Amino acid sequence: MDRGTLWGLVAGRAARSPDVTALIQAGATAADDRRLTFGALRTRAERVAAGLYGLGVRPGSRVVWQLPTRIETVLLSLALARLGAVQSPLVPAYRDHETAHVLRRTAADLFVVPGTWRGFDHAAMARRLAARLPRPPAVLTAYRTLPDGDPAVLPPPPAEGEAVRWIYWTSGSTADPKGVLHCDRALLTAGTDLGRALRLTPSDVGSMAFPYAHVAGPDYTVMLLRHGIPAVLFEHFALPAALGAYRRHGVTVAGGSTAFYALFLAEQRKQPGRRLLPALRLLAGGGAPKPPDLYDDVVRELGCALTHGYALTEAPMVTMGDPRDSHEHLATRDGRPPAGMEIRIADGGEIRLRGPAVCRGYLGEPAPFDADGFLPTGDLGHLTPSGHLVVTGRLKDIIIRKGENISAQEIEELLHRHPDIAEAAVIGLPDAARGERVCAVVEQPPGAAELTLDAITAHLLAQGLARHKLPERLEVLAALPRGATLGKVRKPELRERFGGGAARV
């Protein structure tokens, strides 16, 4: 029995499958790859826990860690789970502003960093920020080596999974990130439900190409522990460099978000007629809208299934498409919720959530739940008679022009069908006469013809879009600004950048 704790799940899997591979660290070549079994995962994590205990980490200690996707990162996180510490993962892309905010809000006892990673000195930043705090945390560099000790010194592992032991951070661009409070049981519920939805089998091989510090990290780890299957870890995901490891290890399940689907598809189009990843059976993810045309292109050209779901930091698994669903359901909907996840569509179309995978609230803020205990998400959608969720956008993505509500996502999906548009983001900009005007910000594929506002207007009209929804401004960027985790477009940044100025024609 795992008793609802992550460490209980680790111990249980290690007892059942000690010699089965759990993690594979992708190297540049096969000689550079590293492996760890489930048995070694438990043994080494417990020794790391003992090493941390020797450094003063105790049950309830607050530890912020900012580490890349490596075996050592998983070991450190599991060691903290063994101790019952409160851990706050931080994506490595965060710099002084966001990191200082996290250290201050958590009142961290320990801050773990990778040293200099990808040209940035995290250790220097850690020391600089710690010196500014009234109670500075200890700073530990942990990249290739981790603290080590004798597990005999350890107290018993946590006995229950209801206490808040995780603080995850929502990404913000115009405001400080919020600390999302989770317990072990919530993360176990989410990861278990995800594995069921994807219909994993003992022969599957997963992959983690996203930052392990994202809430998807424990989500995916729980899935591996439940099913006893391995995953390939990519410290830095980039294509085509990562393709060799995908092929070497026969990855069958991959993904992360819409941006990942598009990257794989772009690589496949460089060699049409030859499968990019022969073993791949399923791409899966969430975190951003999935245009139906992208679904069709991926399934047809990559030769695999694609299931997309809806999740957020506050609830890591809300819905997920079933690989056995119909084409219509997979292309146009965002899956069904598992047992225990309640979805309520409030007045105005807002999606609200209640269930064991939902967070406990936000660090230092009033409880965000409504009178019935549902969490308002700020997302808009509806449920179909079959129980599938259709996410239609965000409350702040509804553009109100002359009193008419316009869905940004509807226009984005139509723009995505244009052959000279690789990615599109539609935003509302202030307008004194109309309230808001519609602005399309697009990214073009290499070699595409130059776009004009007239050209996209003609395209949208040909797709049947109503005239009052047409963009009145076009901006073309070399690359849309994206979040540091799953590559979601940062619309607040676009609104701030294009809040004034003339339209492109």
From TrEMBL:
One of its GO terms (molecular function) is medium-chain fatty acid-CoA ligase activity. The keyword Ligase applies. Gene3D superfamilies: 3.30.300.30, N-terminal domain of ligase-like. Residues 13-363 form the AMP-dependent synthetase/ligase domain. The keyword Ligase applies. It holds the Pfam family AMP-binding. Residues 410-482 form the AMP-binding enzyme C-terminal domain. InterPro entries: AMP-bd_C (IPR025110), AMP-bd_C_sf (IPR045851), AMP-dep_synth/lig_dom (IPR000873), ANL_N_sf (IPR042099). Keywords: Ligase. GO terms for biological process: fatty acid metabolic process. Belongs to the ATP-dependent AMP-binding enzyme family. PANTHER family: ACYL-COA SYNTHETASE, MEDIUM-CHAIN ACYL-COA LIGASE ACSF2, MITOCHONDRIAL. This is Cyclohexanecarboxylate-CoA ligase. It comes from Streptomyces lydicus.
